[in-house]
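[scheduler] slot 2 assigned
[scheduler] job type: sequence-to-structure, two independent chains
[scheduler] chain ordering preserved from manifest
[runner] begin chain α
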Amino acid sequence: MHVTTSSVTVRYDDVLALNAVSLEVKPGTKVVVWGSAGSGKTTLLKALAGLVRPTTGSVHWSDLDVTSLSVSRRRELQSELGMVFQSDALFDSMSVLDNVLMPLRKRRVPEAEAHQRALEALTRVGLRDAAQKRPEALSGGMKKRCGVARAIVSRPSVLLADDPFAGLDPVTEQSIASLLLEVSAGRTLIAALPDPIDALPVDRVLHLTQGRVA
């Protein structure tokens, strides 16, 4: 999927989160978007994923204008984008396996196929043996791995990662960086970080400041 934005501006009431940001990410490209807190990194990722509607400007997935799509069509195409959230966004009331199954169940993938794909994703991130555990029993690094498994279970062509190293020690950070590079092989990877890190080599670096491209 070819992802582009054209002069995307996003306002939250009186807050200007993004200010006329234009970006082109070709398939298979690895990109880091970095900036301090409040620079617009997370808003940009959510706009790229179709989770935030631009106040002005447009987001395109290949030749489709996301803002012009119906809700059902946009949700259908969102399976092409997997997102790793900064806060992990795991449900403590559900097992690790059920957390990873959730995106497939929402898309009504047959249960047997969904189960197999979820276990494959957990195996890939090294959590197969933790499938029946609850997230509260996992370490910080394991929770990140679970989040990655959930992001890739729908086999997306674009992987979005919002500050995936937040709260991790240097050794675990290196491990998660290696995992992101591994699972994004052949895919587009767009990671939002407070600073670029050597452990995550990329093709392009985009610096945001106060909602603008610096």
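[runner] end chain α
[runner] begin chain β
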Amino acid sequence: MCATCGCGSSEHEHPRHVLFDVQPRRHRVEIDLLAKNDRIAGENRRRFAARGVCAINLMSSPGAGKTTLLEATIASLRGVRPVAVIEGDQETERDAIRIRAAGARAVQINTGTGCHLDAEMVARGFDELDPPAGSLLLIENVGNLVCPALFDLGEQRRVVLMSVTEGDDKPVKYPHMFKKADLLVVNKIDLLPYVRFDVEAAVAHARQLRPELPVVLTSADRADGIEEWLGFLRDAKSEAA
């Protein structure tokens, strides 16, 4: 079992382990595994670019509203741009079913005891989806604010979602995730009148880690901020083309 995150596979490793493990052989194995992930991520990136696919890695803690935001995104882009989705969860196909019902192709990847997607999983998902040229590939990572930040998937952009039902100090508690973000989405703002959440404090905490980090405030249920979110996706796609 992974001592850092509790993943059930003995094959599962994290960069942080190297700092604490003094066994030379184990050290070499961990570096080899990380190198393998980075190599496959590089292959993914080249494949995405060759097909003009823009891949977005969407990360958050469980329940922040990733799937609902994707449903609103698919509805907004219907007839405008092809969208394909890789769904990551430990178990069930519930989110993939929701995405297909919204009108996009989706593949569900179940990680079992694993707490994140890796580059090889994404490569298999891409093969199964076989999205047309120019597609937007949305990768909904497993709900977790630790492990997904450590693994390159070959994506062009990383987006971190946090909802107002969480603490506004999440960036301080999970700094690595927010340091790696290209966009912060603060979701469920329709609930602000009912919760103790300081938007300005949350944004300030995040920008201490990544100055000038773009921020979009959204309510996927009410479509608040969806145009700003779509603008980010348009910019990412044009740069990836």
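[runner] end chain β
[qc] chain β: Residues 14-22 have pLDDT under 50 and may be disordered.
[scheduler] slot 2 released
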